[in-house]
């Protein structure tokens, strides 16, 4: 994973516990930081002698020609708290090149109807996608359903209202508040009743071509389930998790060891690892500079390919069955189940 030191150009307080950070990208690096709507970058900092990496979605549209991310402070979140309270304009931060599979490519002649469901900071990649649709697919429409506690805690609240007024008939936003009763909004969370109200009441005459979901795993599971009940094909539902629950089932119980060979940056390294470890944990322990970010199986930074042997993932919400059949795996979730294992990070 390639990192570059970028200067913070602007920090904007979006809500009491969320900021957007814009980086200055030198002209010599503009090609490196070209991106698709919905992609993310990984930030790398050292705090108290420990290296931390976190993935944050780009909330700007590619046409806006800027790298801007949104960071919401979470309870006991070391990195997010540091970003909200300590980072300042002029600071240098190591930033990776953009990546990610939750993305959108516009087609200027397309005439489609899109819907998006987001909760909390899950708005950040969706904001990039919806602005791209509005800017680059002038015949298309998008409906956003967006859940938060209150209007004051809603990232991009005013900008979304401005966009709806500017793109009348093309962009519709439905706010959902769990701790505030506000006229012309939904009260509660994004649940089955809200999804059905949007599809069958607010936009009953609209046939949607694709759905973009981003937020907590429970919300994504709920929305996906209701969409499928409404005969939406799984291939038309795109999602990215912002937080995932632990999954005790599918945890391999093994006491063995594996001889693992890892190819990264053109060099092969072989060593012994415990089958209780993930491939990523073992690689980092042995000092290998393998790509990673969230370490929780919710981004795609650490994807690699199994070229020999077998491993199983403790959790997977990203890779399709076809990709797994091709040998792709998430190194942060993959634990060996064979005595030898070969992993390729270079040719993915």
From TrEMBL:
Entry keyword Iron: yes
Keywords: 2Fe-2S, FAD, Flavoprotein, Iron, Iron-sulfur, Metal-binding, Oxidoreductase
Ranges where the 2Fe-2S ferredoxin-type domain occurs: 258-348
Source organism superkingdom: Bacteria
Stretches that traverse the bilayer: none
InterPro entries in UniProt: 2Fe-2S_ferredoxin-like_sf, 2Fe-2S_ferredoxin-type, 2Fe2S_fd_BS, Beta-grasp_dom_sf, Cbr1-like_FAD-bd_dom, FAD-bd_FR_type, FNR_nucleotide-bd, MRET
Cofactor dependency: FAD
Protein name: Ferredoxin--NADP reductase
């Amino acid at each position: 994973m390639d990192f570059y030191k970028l200067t913070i150009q602007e920090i904007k307080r979006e809500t009491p516990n969320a900021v957007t950070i814009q980086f200055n990208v030198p002209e010599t690096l503009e090609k490196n930081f070209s991106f698709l709507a919905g992609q993310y970058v990984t930030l790398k900092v050292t705090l108290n002698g420990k290296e931390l990496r976190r993935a944050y979605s780009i909330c700007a549209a590619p046409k806006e020609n800027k790298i801007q991310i949104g960071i919401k402070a979470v309870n006991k979140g070391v990195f997010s708290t540091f970003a909200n309270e300590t980072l300042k304009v002029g600071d240098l931060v190591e930033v990776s090149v953009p990546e990610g599979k939750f993305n959108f490519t516009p087609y200027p002649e397309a005439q489609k109807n899109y819907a998006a469901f987001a909760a909390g900071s899950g708005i950040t990649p969706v904001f990039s996608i919806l602005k791209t649709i509005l800017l680059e697919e002038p015949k298309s429409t998008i409906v956003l359903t967006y859940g938060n506690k209150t209007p004051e805690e809603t990232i991009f609240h005013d900008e979304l209202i401005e966009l709806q007024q500017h793109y009348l008939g093309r962009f519709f936003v439905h706010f959902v508040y769990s701790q505030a009763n506000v006229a012309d909004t939904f009260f509660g969370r994004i649940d089955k009743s809200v999804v059905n109200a949007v599809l069958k009441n607010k936009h009953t005459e609209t046939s949607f071509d694709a759905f973009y979901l981003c937020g907590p795993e429970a919300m994504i599971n709920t929305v996906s389930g209701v969409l499928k009940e409404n005969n939406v094909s799984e291939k038309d539902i795109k999602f990215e998790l912002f937080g995932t629950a632990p999954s005790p089932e599918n945890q391999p119980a093994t006491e063995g060891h594996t001889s693992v060979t890892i190819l990264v940056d053109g060099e092969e390294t072989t060593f012994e690892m415990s089958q209780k470890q993930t491939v990523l944990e073992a690689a980092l322990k042995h000092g290998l500079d393998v790509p990673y970010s969230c370490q929780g199986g919710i981004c795609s930074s650490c994807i690699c390919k199994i070229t020999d042997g077998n491993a199983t993932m403790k959790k997977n919400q990203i890779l399709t069955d076809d990709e797994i059949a091709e040998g792709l795996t998430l190194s942060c979730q993959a634990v060996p189940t064979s005595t030898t294992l070969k992993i390729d990070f270079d040719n993915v």
